[in-house]
Amino acid sequence: MANVMSHDAAISHADTVDETRADAQSPTYQAYQILRIAFTVAPIIAGLDKFTHVLTDWDKYLAPMANNILGGNGHAFMMVVGVIEIIAGIGVFLKPKVFGYIVGVWLLLIIINLLMIPGYFDVALRDLGLSLGAFALARLSAVYDK
Q1: pLDDT of 45-76, one tens digit each?
Q2: Which end of the chain is more exposed for a tag (fewer CB within 10 A), N or C?
């Protein structure tokens, strides 16, 4: 039993040492950087594409009820969304400790919207995974974004 406890203590100590190392060899630091890059680049690309529609017609992802509340100005709203996403991506690059949470909450709001559109539940599920990744980035940033 003592061997198991000392092994657990050693693992716990190794995790603590690893999570405070901000070098290229640290798995937690590598995960932090991967998430930081992903949540910088993806929102900026998605935000820019709200204006060009090269990747998709983003207007189809706005719930009809939301478009009605906006007085039929869903396309203009999606352009505002694009600007917000660009700012969020830049924010994640500069301050992931704060913007990781902002992006996570933003994705939760997107999920609520998607759940109001029949046939988009798979996209909502994907965005749940992205939201959890953004929250993980924010948590890792507590160590690396000093």
Answers
A1: 999 999 999 999 999 999 999 999 999 999 99
A2: N
**Among 130, 142, 104, 131, CA closest to 19:** 142
Given a contact cutoff of 8 angstroms between Cβ atoms, the answer to whether 138 and 101 are in contact is yes
Whether 13 is in a domain gets the answer: no
The reported pTM is: 0.82
Separation of alpha carbons 101 and 98, rounded Å: 6
Among the residues of the chain, which ranges form H helices? Answer: 2-20, 27-52, 64-69, 74-94, 96-114, 121-144
Cβ atoms 39, 137 nearer than 8 A? yes
Domain around 90: 27-144
Amino acid at 141: S
Q: How far is CA 109 from CA 19, 93, 129, in A?
A: 31, 21, 13
